[in-house]
Write a structure and sequence with these properties.
This protein folds into two domains: about 130 residues, Malonyl-CoA decarboxylase, oligemerization domain (Butyryl-CoA Dehydrogenase, subunit A, domain 3, Up-down Bundle), CATH 1.20.140; about 270 residues, Aminopeptidase (3-Layer(aba) Sandwich). The protein is about 50% helix and about 10% strand. It is globular and about 70 Å long. Helix 2 packs across helix 4, helix 3 packs antiparallel against helix 4 and helix 8 packs across helix 10. The protein has a five-stranded mixed beta sheet, with helices on both faces. Strand 4, helix 14 and strand 5 form a beta-alpha-beta unit. The chain is an alpha+beta fold and about 475 residues long.
């Protein structure tokens, strides 16, 4: 077989997959397991987990890992919950081992370094090693991502599983770090398998059909890029859609219009990131979107030196909900009487076009003043882009006039500007001090009588910190 690989008759990935399959088959033989019976076996997931941790042989370990993952996929929700709960307790840290390691460290026998390392090893939950061994199975990474998706669906009603989720995030953050990710362009010639997933995973502006997808990928003034991981072949982890334009857009409709007139790429001066979608629910909390934006900016700047401006056209998904909660709060610092009357008229069926000034002023307060207890902006999209070093550039009234846009943000959209020479300074200001870097136009939209009032704490704006930008 090695000669076949050297001669090119067998591809290296095929050889590696064949080697893994061989190990699995040999492992089953060692354990007396029959592959054809696995589907009908009612295996105890916890016992399989213990068996996997106890094995030293690679072949038998791969076989047990594959069996456990397959059994979890087949299991009903009660059995899945039982196994995940066992990860929290049965496969948690060994308390006795921790106590002994602490005592040894305090006695400082044999040198501080070795005892500290022993304490660290004892404190690591057994489930981390179990998850690592499960990852050795064929398709183990994708199976574990799906397992965490199940875990996340149960977490609200079972908060005792939080420690398990923390360990998943800890391991996934290493396995999916930027060094392992591959940036690939997506265009109309990309395989149908991937294109179907782009349609399915688009989370910001739904792709209606194949013609809609073609309108976003094929014209010379459109781009799409995605991050892939070697263990999740043909599964984009996150992708961004880009429009090349002559100016900063204030509305999404013209960008998605199928009848629009495309321009040549070399005529564009602005790259607009109008949709960023994470695709894997099981990787929630594992951040690689910031790497995607920065990498795409660098690639586009290199490909098209005529591009001078890099901006987003972003939704504001929590704005309307926040505003409605503030309207119910009599002591809200965000709402003055003029705004309250205008928003009340809107709720009674008034013309939203007549509410431009109060909505824009309220939006300025939302971005510049409304904070989480952590001191960061309440808007999740703002936290993402500001954390990446962007500047809040412009508020676009009725930038999204669709039913979804009006419901979630009164139609508001915003532009975040990625100025290459200021990205690092903006990021540091936000990360260190919570500074919202915003353009003068955005700051001027904040009504003087609101910006000058003392902030009144409420359940929705839990911070009295002032913004410097």
């Amino acid at each position: 077989m090695l000669n076949d690989i050297r001669s090119g008759r067998i591809a290296a990935p095929e050889f590696l997959q064949g080697l893994i399959d061989t190990l699995t088959q040999r492992g089953r033989a060692v354990l007396g397991m029959k592959a054809e019976r696995e589907g009908s076996e009612d295996r105890d997931l916890e016992l399989l987990g213990e068996a996997l941790l106890s094995r030293r042989g690679e072949a038998s370990g791969v076989a047990i890992a594959q069996s456990l993952l397959a059994a979890f996929e087949r299991a009903a929700e009660p059995q899945r919950l039982k196994f995940l709960s066992s990860l929290a307790d049965r496969f948690g840290p060994d308390r006795r081992a921790i106590e002994l390691a602490i005592a040894a460290y305090q006695r400082k026998e044999g040198g501080d370094g070795s005892k500290l390392e022993a304490l660290h090893a004892a404190a690591e939950p057994r489930r981390q090693e179990l998850i690592r061994r499960l990852n050795l199975a064929p398709g183990g990474t994708s199976s574990l991502v799906r397992m965490r998706e199940v875990l996340l669906s149960l977490l609200r009603e079972h908060p005792e599983l939080q420690a398990v989720d923390d360990d998943f995030v800890h391991l996934f953050s290493s396995w999916f770090n930027r060094g392992f990710l591959v940036l690939r362009p997506i265009d109309w010639t990309t395989s149908a398998n991937i294109l179907e997933k782009i349609i399915r995973y688009e989370a910001v502006h739904a792709i209606q059909d194949w013609d809609d997808l073609r309108n976003r990928l094929e014209p010379p003034d459109r781009r799409c890029y995605a991050f892939f991981h070697p263990q999740l072949v043909d599964e984009p982890l996150i992708f961004v859609e880009v429009a090349l334009t002559r100016e900063i857009p204030g509305a999404i409709g013209p960008l998605l219009d199928k009848s629009r007139q495309a321009i040549a790429a070399h005529e564009a001066t602005t790259a607009v990131f109008y949709s960023i979608s994470n695709t894997q629910k099981g990787l929630a909390g594992v951040s690689f979107g910031n790497f995607l934006i920065k990498q795409v900016v660098q690639d586009l700047a290199r490909e098209l030196p005529n591009l001078k401006t890099f901006v987003t056209l972003s939704p504001v998904p929590g704005f309307a909900g926040w505003a409605r909660r503030e309207l119910k709060t009599e002591a809200s610092a965000a709402i003055d009487e003029d705004t309250r009357r205008a928003m009340a008229a809107l709720d009674e069926g008034g013309d939203i076009a007549q509410a431009k000034e109060p909505i824009t002023a309220l939006a300025a307060y939302y971005f510049l003043k409304a904070k989480l207890p952590s001191g960061k902006p309440v808007d999740p999209v703002a936290r993402f882009h500001l954390g990446n070093g962007a500047r809040l550039e412009r508020l676009n009234f009725l930038g999204d006039s669709s039913a979804k846009g009006v419901k979630q943000s009164y139609g508001l959209m915003v532009n975040y500007l990625y100025a290459l020479e200021h990205i690092e300074a903006n990021h540091e200001a936000f990360a260190e001090h919570g500074t919202v870097v915003a353009s003068d136009k955005v700051k001027k939209a904040l009504r003087a009588k609101l910006s000058s009032r003392d902030l009144v704490p409420s359940p929705h704006t839990n911070s009295q910190r002032k913004i410097s930008s």
